[in-house]
Amino acid sequence: MAQCAQSVQEFVQDSFVPMVGVLCSEEAERVTRKNNLSFTELLRPFCRLMSEGHIRDPNNQVQVVKNLRICINNVVTSLSTPPAALSSAKSRLLNEVVLSCQPQEGAVTNMIIAGNYELNFSATTPWFETYRENFLQSMPPSDHEFLNHYLACLLVVSSTEAVPVEQFLKLSQEQHRIQHSGDYTNPKWFIPNTLKYYVLLHDMSEGDEQRANGVYEDMKQRYGSQGCYLLKINTRTFPAEDDEQIPDPWSQYLNRNNLHSQDILEDLSPTVNSISAAGEDCHQYTEKDDVSNNVESHPLQLNPGSLPPFTDDMKKDSDNLAGGAGSHGACLTLNDHDHIRQFIQEFTFRGLLPHIEKNIRQLNDQLVSRKGLSRSLFTATKKWFGGGKVPEKSISEPKSTCGLLYPPEAPELQIRKMADLCFLVQHYELAYSCYHTAKKDFLSDQAMLYAAGALEMAAVSAFLQAGAPRPYPAHYMETAIQKYKDECKTMVLAERCALLSAEILKSQGKYSEAATLLIKMTSEDSDLRSALLLEQAAHCFINMRNPMVRKFAFHMILAGHRFSKAGQRRHALRCYCQAMQVYKDRGWSLAEDHINFTIGRQSFTLNQPEGAVLAFRQLLTNDSKQTATQQGAFLREYLYVYKSVMGENESSLPQLPLPCIQSSLTRVYFGHERRLAQGEKQAATHVSLDQEYDQDMAVMWCHLEEELVASANRGVVPGSFQPTQCCLNSQTDNLRQPLAVVEEPIIVELTFRNPLKVSLALSNVSLLWRFSPAGVSSVKENTTEEVTQKEDVISAEIIPEFHMCPEETKVARLRLLPHRTGQLKIVGVVYNLAAGSVGETASGTEGQHTLELMVVRGKQDLKVQGPRLNQTKEDKMLVRHGPDLRLDPIITPPMPLLEVFFLQFPTALLCGEIRKAYVEFCNVSGVSLCGLRVVSTHPEFFTFGRHATTTTPTASTSAEIGSAYQTCAATSPSCSASTEVLVPAEDFSQPCGVMDIPVEGSTLQPGQSTQLPLWLRGPDQEGVHEINFLFYYESTDKGNKMSHRVLRHTVFICTSRSLSVQASACRSSGPPLHSLDGGGGGGTLVFIDVENINLSESGVREFHIIQVSSSSQHWRLHKCINPSKDKDCRLTSRERAKLCFRATRCPPHQDATRDGKKFTFADVNLGNERVFSSSTPCGDFFFRGCRTSGSVMSSRTSCSTKSHSCVPAEDRTSDITNIVKKCNELDLNIIVIWKAFVVEDNRQLILEGQLHVALQTIGKEASSLVPRQESQEMMLLKFKSEVPPPFVIPPAELSQLVKTHLHYPETYTHPFTQDSLCLVPVTLTLSNCSLAQVDIIIDMRHMDTCTESVEVHSSFCWVGQTQYKLQLSPREVLGLTLQACFLQAGVYNLNTPRIYAKPVEQDAMCETSQQMASPAFIIIINSS
Fold it and tell me: CA–CA separation, 322 vs 263, rounded Å?
């Protein structure tokens, strides 16, 4: 239970106090009315004694009476027997008492932390204490107990009476008549000889004090000094001054509505009727709504229909209840207060307590005199007291008492009377003994009502005994409650018993037993009692050692429901709010819905619209599990309440809960939306809100933009560079304010989610913004209503209708068009909200009116949360989020706007196919643009050509119309020699892959457009390729915050197979003198294998190889040495052709020039026309493809002779390696140009293309196909680094240092009969292929193992030296004359000498045998 202001002992003592009646003369009442008080009201604040009293028990032991309070009431007679339950008037007044006592703002609250729950609730429940106090005071008197029977009677007469003694006599006779005549059932008197105490009331302001004293002396002579008193009041004869503070102790008592006085009840009957009428109206309203409710029913469900108009708080002024208005005690001074207090003390100590002591002794003596005559104290002696009980039926008593009533002189009642007297004077030990004895007698007689009363008071007496000699018998109380409730049907007595027992159990920490007891007392006969007891049970659950939080909340809900049924709406609202602390955000969605709905209804009824709106808002924002019908009812209730609240205040737009805005999904797009294709024109894709964000693609676009910016700023990226972000979302970098351009739209994409199972209808949706002009500190705020008046600042788009289906997530795109530069902040969205189902069910004029009522206007703020910070330790420990400025753009001055269109742009190509397209650039803004550039992820895919090509012929005759190449007729088709062109590399160079777009004048004026040719080449690898272009341009007006703008374009090209080219090179085995061909240097053979790998899926019939070209700084294709030279090379599906060319070195004067690198293009045409390989597009694609592979533009190490003595060993090894590698370098790039004949739609098309092969090393094969990347195998993890092995030059590379050739006659005739020895001269030619000096050792001895076939004779020998040691200079050719000696005719292989070659710097141990390339056969013929 909640905390009480009193202790448990004080509460129980004050529940049972001595009762004193008052009979007052009219003149005495007139005297007290001067203070706006009756006589009983005048005494009430002073009825608690401040000092201790004493009595002696029957054993003559002194018993101390502490903190005694007496109850003084007017004697009001009644002819009817008091009912067992409270009357309807008293019940209504109890309801009003609870209603008038509400929790105060700022009252003390308890904070309890139980597990994950943090509860804050009221520490005290003063409304329950007030109810309990008034309930105990309003208990009707009963015959089975004497605690609320009058012990004494005050007879009050004014001193102004003519004969005061006569008035005392009349009052005494009246009291005697009331008590003993038998005409009145009420009031009830404790004992026949009631104490009469005579009070002479003297008014000091008008009476004669001397006369009063004389009368008082006469009274003392007549009644004794202990039976009368002179009370002097009204000492004050003038009004109190303003600065004088007179205490008013009566107000707190008068506001408690004394329920004992029947005259007050009569005076308050109009007020009570009005209050009860209001309560009945509320109750009828609830019942009526429950009947008409068409929503899903629930035991605690309130009606979700339309709400009634606001009602009053149903409060009455406390002054009306007190019987008058104005201040109390105006004629009394502080001395008068002391006089009254002294009077109460004199009456109690000298009159009441001695009277009680005397009666206790008398009862004890009567009972003890008959003790021992039977087993019980008086069970067997009932015959001495009038023959025992009277078995008669009582009309007023319930039948459950078995019709048993004891006569007043019955010994059972005498012992009960003695027990009650002892209890009233705090002699609890004797009282317990008497109660315990009496309850046995009552139980044996089956007098259940009497037995229940004895059990109740025995338990209370046992608890109040000093020192607690015996434990509290809680089972006594349980038995008493059960008998009161079930057998006697007296709920009032059962309730009193439960209130006492629960408070006692609570004081002992037995909260669970107390809660169980209180819950058992709930019933349907009294909603107010059930509500109060359920609330106290909830407090018991929360105050346990281990708080039972959910039980607390559940019983708070039950209490709130019963409060609502009792008309106590404020208390019901409080209970539901306290229970909400437990159920909120715990997954109890249905319970939350019920609580929020009830809070909303109660708040609206109590004229608290803000709380009602908040509660209904929670119903709509949570993920509700209610049915669609229930959710529709919730929505209608919210709209009705919202409409009622907004009807009073239309100026401000409050927050709406529906639909939910997923702020993290908010996207902002700056600029115009992309234009769709126009006829054959294909617009650049750029950035669109329909595209999904890809982080990897964003990084790629950023790298491309960095290349463009670096190219525009002389290769340096500025430190203030920020990548362009046209579309901002939660994954982009939003730490800086974005830049928007004036007169260009800003599109905000909002994601709305309808959490309900009913549709929503939004209308007039627009953005809410604030704008600060550039250079002005003032901020302009705007809503949709004000946009029409300020279109010169920002134009906002309004969506007239926006319908959302149940549980739908829908995107809305809202536009703003800024007209001025400055700072813009998008703060929210404003719209009208209506229930979609209302429009569906409404019909006719009435339905249209309902629809209009259900439409409300409001807003929602847009608050985008930035990314969580995770940099510092504090950020990691706490949850902090960085800024997100995507909704705070800066409006900049006008910028140029570029649109790009593509014409005849293909979607499918063959690998290496060349196609010509066109691109159109349009400046659609009012500002000139310049610095147009483009960069791509596939720079080898396209080219715009060169500005000027010196090698392009002035008049070219293409063999066919529409060819992408520049061609001319071949001069001599039968000639297989090449045509050479020297081209500087600068003609094709573009730094970092960025290409300047050749726009005329390098500037596009506003509204100007230009069209340029664009050559495309299909990628070398088949499949679907994503190719990205990024166009860059600047404004001619410098100094803007936005330095440049970019335009994105993405295409997908599907490529299919065409040809496969395999190329390899080897040194010519012919003599060097025959391979010079006028160019100098050694010759090389180039073998090209071309295979048609097309699967004929694209309709390709055959390929024609029309030309093979080469491009290199040092080599060139000299001629084709194929046997067939009279026809084109035609390849159908899966056919292969092998071509052989001779390559020679370029002339020495063409290797390098002062102007820079130059490339020699050599064209060997195999058909009737020649393609200019050095011009656009062939040369462009060659250079762009080579730049991608890094084979042509790589820097080369120049060969310079250095002093080897000063070079370290490591550098010497590196030099030797370079020498060996350069010896085998070829650096020859092959371009194979082809045509394909395609049949499509019964017509033949001719496609063109070119394939590139880069020959880097002699003896190593190269291919035009891009090798597929194979997945790397898993390697074992090594924790210890291994020592790298020493570098050893492979023997295969050393074998290429020297080229050898044997010159000899193929046949030689010799007469062996004449001369047995045949000597044949042989010349061995040695060519140094490297650029370093080479040491050579020639060993003429035969090898031990002969690998020749048996047909080849080996019986010959070399005549002369067996070993030669030579040294060849770089590029030196040396001839050595040898002689071979044969003994017989036959075929011999002369390639037997073993040749060792090594660079001069190489150690001897690294010598490697120089192997002969091929066998050299000679035929020896015998002439005889």
Answer: 12
Helices (H), 79-141: 88-100, 126-137
d(CA 923, CA 925): 6
Across 1390-1398, average pLDDT: 84
Query: By the 8 A CB rule, do 898 and 923 touch?
Result: yes
Instruction: Tell me the pTM.
Output: 0.69
Sign of CA dihedral 707, 713, 716, 720: negative
Query: Tokens 């010497």 label which residue?
Result: 1212
Measured from the Cβ of residue 223, the count of other Cβ atoms closer than 10 Å reads: 18
Contact 85, 382 (CB under 8 A): no
Strand partners, 1419: 1307, 1387
Q: How far apart are the first and last CA of the chain?
A: 144
Convert the pLDDT of each residue in 810-825 to its tens digit.
Answer: 999 999 999 999 999 9
What is residue 325's predicted lDDT score, i.e. its pLDDT? Answer: 42
Q: What is the mean pLDDT of residues 155-160?
A: 93
Q: Are 809 and 752 in contact (CB under 8 A)?
A: yes
The tokens 């499918």 sit on which residue? 908
What residues have CB less than 8 Å from 941, skipping those under 6 apart? Answer: 1016, 1017, 1019, 1025, 1027, 1053
Q: What DSSP assignment string belongs to 474-486?
A: HHHHHHHHHIIII
- C-beta separation of 1339 from 1400 below 8 A: no
Q: Which residues of 794-833 are buried (b: 16+ CB within 10 A; e: fewer)?
A: bbbbbeeebebebeeebebebbbebeebbbbbbbbbbbbb
Q: Which class for 1352: exposed (0-12), middle (13-18), buried (19 or more C-beta within 10 A)?
A: middle
Q: Which residues contact 359 (CB under 8 A, 6 or more apart)?
A: 191, 421
- Please give the radius of gyration of the chain, using alpha carbons only, rounded to the nearest integer: 59
CA-to-CA distance for 322 and 271, rounded, in angstroms?
12
CA distance 1177 to 263: 118
Answer whether 565's CB lies under 8 Å from 283's CB.
yes
Residue 49, token pair as written in the block: 């004694």
DSSP for 1348-1377? --TTSB--EEEES-SEEEEEE-TT-EEEEE
As given in the structure block, the two tokens for residue 608 are 């608290």
Q: Cα–Cα distance between 25 and 170 in angstroms, integer?
A: 9
**How confident is the model over 90-111, as a mean pLDDT?**
80
What distance in Å separates the CA atoms of residue 1265 and residue 1251, rounded to the nearest whole number?
9
Q: What is the largest CA-CA distance in the chain?
A: 200
Other Cβ atoms closer than 10 A to 407: 14
**For 468-625, where are the alpha helices, taking DSSP H only?**
474-482, 491-507, 511-520, 527-542, 549-565, 569-583, 589-605, 609-621
Q: Contacts from 215-224 at CB under 8 Å and sequence distance 24+? A: 215/159, 215/164, 215/165, 218/165, 219/164, 219/165, 219/168, 222/165, 223/198
134, 981, 1012 from 917: Cα distances, Å? 100, 27, 9
With beta carbons less than 8 A apart as the criterion, state whether 430 and 417 touch: no
Structure tokens given for 1257: 């090393």
